[in-house]
Amino acid sequence: MIQSLLIANRGEIACRVIRTARELGIRTIAVYSDADAQALHVREADEAVHIGPSPTRESYLVGEKILAAARQTGAEAIHPGYGFLSENAEFAQAVIDAGIVWVGPNPSSITAMGLKDAAKTLMAEAGVPVTPGYMGANQEPDFLAAEAAKIGYPVLIKAVAGGGGKGMRLVEDPGDFIDALASCKREAAASFGNAHVLIEKYIASPRHIEVQVFGDKHGNVLHLFERDCSLQRRHQKVIEEAPAPGMDAATREALCAAAVRAAKAVDYVGAGTIEFIADGSGALDAERIWFMEMNTRLQVEHPVTEEITGVDLVEWQLRVASGEALPLSQEDLTIDGWAMEARLYAEDPAKGFLPSIGRLELLQFGEAEGGRIDTGVYEGAEVSPFYDPMIAKVIAWGEDREEARERLGEMLEDSAVWPVRTNASFLVKALQHPDFAAGKVDTGLIGRDGEALAEPPVPSADVLQAAAQALVPVTLAPGLRLNAPAARSAWFVLDGEKVEIELVGEGSDEPATGVLVTEQGQAWLLAPWRRDGAHGAAAGSGAILAPMPGKVIAVDVAQGQAVTKGQKLLTLEAMKMEHTLTAPFDGVVAELNASAGQQVQVDALLVKIEETE
Questions:
Q1: Do the beta carbons of residue 41 and residue 8 sit within 8 Å?
Q2: pTM here?
């Protein structure tokens, strides 16, 4: 077994790897950027090495700095986690050439499966079914548009080096193809350094089902069953579960056998995932399930597989990298119960899921039997604008799907974060959606019903009343009424909105200046109303402010131009994603303070729209 391990990553996955390594008695080394100097993974590791400024391209994506840190600390092995350099074949080879153990697949396997077009060709040759599409080298827009027409709309444009939902666009109308292609290529180049795309047929009712595979250096390859990751928003996974709803034994056997064939075709070593797209318009059928891609690393959603198999996948990674054979055979593995995972993000669903950054003054995770929290932050930590805004993975296990779903909902409802906004309420509503509850989920569910799911929650009257009592001096408490509780109304401010709350009973001897209200996985600040309006709600001024620090990559309007409600004004790139800012109402561009390529800070006035009568 290796004795020392450098984790070339950050956040939740770095903490996850450190936890298992510690249990195995392995010394751990963290790396960190300026923004992560006080991060949880730095605190939990035995050693930590600074590797540069906050931007990933100057720190976590610089292989030379990672290798220098490994040499400096005498690290015997490097675990890449997921994202960053985890699927970079050149870095993997550099690690091996430096005489350091690479906790991952062979560089040749990464190369073979790293580009979606080449991987699909290879899988077809191995007898694994693939979706129809164009995977060639010609990247001329007009040529690709013609290929899309041959395939038949709707189509997906996908970055060949993509992942995590980035560099992917759904196109339903031929007239939108060229613009979608340009946007996809920009995002792909920014995220992966490769603007090359492929075109594939879009399945109308798709389900995303993936199989966990594992190989060792002795030629053994097995699977650890499937996961269903169909609940997605903009091609990014929201809630994952294992096993997949509606999967019968025969279909599971065929699907998992195809995944093992795929892994063997590239002599796979370590943890990997074979992703499939299934036609969800009817019952699952092996004849209507096709290969999409392979992720040559550990997946974000690996805990649900761990929960139903009892296997520590990180431990297996470390043992296989050390040269050991797989600890179990295929016959030893069985499915026990059901597991679900929700990705709790620092983002505001009510504002188009824009990331929310800042200090985590309150961080409270709900608990439940069979519950698990994988996180990379702590109360008092900062959510940075430089990285993925994940707060935690909330995982629940149950004897069956319904028990796992209920437990996960309880954990999310009992969680609270302040003042950073989260998607907790959105996740709870998604779990309660009738189709999800029934196991009838395709990747378009959130696209169809997302507006209702994103509707901001409102705290209950009882909770607000109890909080309001703490803000009212006892001398101003309601007068007594015969045979009835004392009651009257008072005005307060709830997150900037003026609200009237009925007061019942006594006030407080020492009234607070503000009370934090937590319910339904959300948090609100309740404060006394002041006549000077210091706590008043901001009026809709037509000012378009930068929701976070970022780079303006496109401006679609000009000074003095008439615009309509919902019209695109500009595109901001932040946290490796493109965010479109639109007009709040019909009007005229009165101010334009943004230009393509400009770096802007949070709350910077970018555009001001004056309403037209």
A1: no
A2: 0.80
